[in-house]
Amino acid sequence: MSNQLRKKFALILLTSLLSITGAACSAGDGGVGNSSGTAAPAGTSASNNTSSANAASHAASNESAGGVASQQIEMDDDVFKPVQLTIPVGTKVTWVNKGKKAHTVVSNDKLFDSGLVDVGAQFSHTFTAPGTYAVHCAPHAKMKGQIVVQ
Questions:
Q1: Would you say 33 and 55 are in contact if contact means Cβ atoms under 8 Å apart?
Q2: Which CATH number applies to 37-149: 3.40.50.2300, 2.60.40.420, 3.40.1390.10, 2.60.40.10?
Q3: Residue 49 Cα distances to 30, 37, 56, 97, angstroms
Q4: Can you tell me the distance from the alpha carbon of 123 to that of 38, in angstroms, rounded to the nearest whole number?
Q5: Which ranges of the chain have pLDDT less than 70?
């Protein structure tokens, strides 16, 4: 089996597992949750984009219901707050748009891309490998940030 075929199979398997897990988690939350995120290949991470107020308040805590550590970064007008964040492996980072215009969160290494995040909406990404991840906002070139995963 070729490497590319293995990667596609792993992605399909991971997507299926995340869908099943997400549905179970949503049921456990009384239906409050979002299992419509996109899955990344094993060894990278998972991301999702939602505008749910309940999900935003849930993500602001330091630990989610599943025991995963979480951190929040605000997208304000032309700045990420904080600009740099240091986290342990396995941490879910949620970017919340508190500005007056839509923003994106794009990793410079193309690991994830939020697409446009509307005002009041959010985007989450779980970092599963150590490293330094530079991010930027596609429409606003001076909006740059960095996530250090240890």
A1: yes
A2: 2.60.40.420
A3: 20, 7, 11, 11
A4: 11
A5: 1-67
CB-CB contact of 114 with 105 (8 Å): yes
User: Can you give the pLDDT at residue 30?
Assistant: 35
Return the pLDDT at 114.
Answer: 98
If we measure between CA atoms, which residue out of 7, 80, 83 comes closest to residue 44?
A: 7
In whole angstroms, what separates CA 89 from the centre of its chain?
13
Q: 77 and 97 in contact (C-beta within 8 Å)? A: no
Q: Do residues 43 and 128 touch, judged by C-beta distance below 8 A?
A: yes
- Secondary structure class of 81 (helix, strand, coil): strand
pLDDT of residue 63: 52
pTM above 0.90, yes or no: no
